[in-house]
């Protein structure tokens, strides 16, 4: 029996409609707000307490995104049965491996694990087993998978949301922020248990286990080429010389931001980079007069900005960046119809087939199969087009067994699609 013909779990009922927030009780701390752990004796007590606890551990971390250049953790929150909750300031310690080792043999419950695992690893906390409540919510088809939404939908509590974008590098951390942070792990254990029941009822528990394993097995993310091309407003930059200005300003800003550990946008906004690239000023005074360069942050480094613009203006043609970004893989799908109509037909059929299966199982399409995997297969399908060969392709591109079981057959059929013949003149 081929994987796609195996008996598959039936589609679950759609999650119930969310209650109005006003009708839900506000989530409160059951044990009160504990002191922040910022001394060696307090950390030792916390390590011992969590080592003596039972069951999985709820873990969360707060960063200072939008304020700092680094992605380090500025607060780590934990909760475990028998241990209570703890708020740990990693800054005085630098390394929390003793705490990580104390709980390494148990499951860590993390909401949106991909966002926190890197900064936890940076302080020496690396799990061997995770349960990602956000990812589990996606597998169950919940339309909103933020922590507050799932706690409301599944457990019936309304969570505070007001400090989600706070500068967590602030010291001392205000008490209301600490309450907010502690609440992030207050219900994670109960949420995890309730979601596991739903996953088992929906026949998706093995899917979730494979997804959680894949999170831990994923290789470190490679830096994307030409990160300066992600500057907001790049669509307004029309020629290669202007692109060189964007690149030069972005790189100059990035060096300053990294050295000062300040978010790049707080030093020079993207709008200023794009405005300079569009205006192409020929002297420093003209650059200073641009609207986006009149702020205090932009003015402080004006000499650097002008040197970057002037350098880009004088580059030889051979050193100017190409108009389009480099691609590690197929070209943008919008160009396929002209470049390879058969590939465009294969992609269209494959996307439609995968979307149909995703809808039948109440899954986001991207969680059924990575869009990039579908594009790569459609652009360069194997010559020996069989289910086994397509299965091997999907496996090589990190698809999980449950994903392969649902999609290998339909993708094999889709790869045989051809563009309709053009009518004769």
UniProtKB/TrEMBL annotation:
Segment forming the signal sequence: none
Domain HRDC intervals: 239-319
Keywords: Hydrolase
Matches recorded under InterPro entries: 3'-5'_exonuclease_dom (IPR002562), Exo_C (IPR041605), HRDC-like_sf (IPR010997), HRDC_dom (IPR002121), HRDC_dom_sf (IPR044876), RNase_D-like (IPR051086), RNaseH-like_sf (IPR012337), RNaseH_sf (IPR036397)
SUPFAM superfamilies: HRDC-like, Ribonuclease H-like
Gene3D superfamilies, per database record: HRDC domain, Ribonuclease H-like superfamily/Ribonuclease H
SMART domains: 35EXOc (SM00474), HRDC (SM00341)
Pfam family, one: DNA_pol_A_exoN
Region (Disordered): 1-20, 315-338
GO MF annotation list: ribonuclease D activity
Biased composition (Low complexity): 1-19
CDD domains: RNaseD_exo (cd06142)
E.C. designation(s): 3.1.13.5
The protein's name: Ribonuclease D
Source organism (scientific name): Kribbella aluminosa
């Amino acid at each position: 029996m081929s994987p796609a013909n195996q008996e598959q779990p039936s589609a679950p009922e759609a999650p119930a409609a969310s209650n109005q927030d006003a009708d839900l009780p506000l989530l409160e701390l059951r044990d009160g707000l504990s002191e922040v752990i910022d001394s060696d004796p307090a950390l030792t007590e916390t390590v011992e307490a969590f080592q003596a606890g039972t069951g999985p551990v709820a873990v969360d971390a707060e960063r200072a995104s939008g304020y700092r250049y680094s992605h380090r953790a500025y607060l780590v929150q934990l909760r475990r049965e028998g241990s209570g909750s703890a708020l740990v300031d990693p800054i005085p310690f630098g390394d929390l491996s003793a705490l990580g080792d104390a709980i390494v043999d148990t499951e860590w419950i993390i909401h949106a694990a991909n966002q926190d695992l890197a900064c936890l690893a940076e302080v020496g906390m690396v799990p061997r087993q995770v349960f990602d409540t956000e990812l589990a919510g996606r597998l169950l088809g919940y339309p909103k998978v933020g922590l507050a939404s799932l706690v409301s939908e599944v457990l019936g509590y309304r969570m505070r949301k007001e400090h989600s974008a706070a500068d967590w590098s602030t010291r001392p951390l205000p008490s209301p922020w600490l309450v907010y942070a502690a609440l992030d792990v207050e219900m994670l254990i109960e949420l995890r248990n309730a979601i596991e029941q739903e996953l088992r009822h929906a026949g998706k528990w093995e899917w979730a286990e494979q997804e959680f394993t894949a999170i831990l097995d994923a290789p470190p993310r490679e830096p994307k080429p030409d990160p300066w091309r992600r500057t907001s407003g790049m669509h307004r930059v029309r020629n290669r010389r202007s692109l060189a200005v964007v690149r030069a300003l972005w790189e100059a800003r990035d060096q300053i931001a990294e050295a000062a550990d300040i978010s790049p946008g707080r030093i020079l906004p993207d709008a200023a980079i794009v405005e300079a690239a569009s205006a192409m000023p020929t002297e420093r005074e003209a650059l200073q007069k641009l609207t986006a360069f009149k702020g205090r942050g932009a003015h402080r480094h004006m000499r650097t900005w002008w040197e970057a613009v002037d350098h880009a203006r004088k580059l030889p043609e051979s050193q100017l960046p190409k108009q389009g970004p480099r691609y590690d893989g197929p070209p943008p799908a919008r160009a396929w119809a002209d470049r390879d109509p058969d590939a465009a037909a294969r992609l269209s059929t494959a996307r439609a087939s995968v979307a149909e299966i995703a809808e039948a199982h109440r899954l986001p399409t991207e969680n059924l199969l990575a869009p990039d995997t579908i594009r790569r297969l459609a652009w360069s399908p194997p010559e020996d087009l069989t289910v086994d060969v397509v299965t091997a392709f999907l496996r090589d591109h990190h698809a999980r067994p449950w994903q392969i079981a649902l999609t290998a057959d339909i993708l094999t059929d889709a790869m045989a699609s051809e563009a309709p013949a053009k009518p004769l003149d």
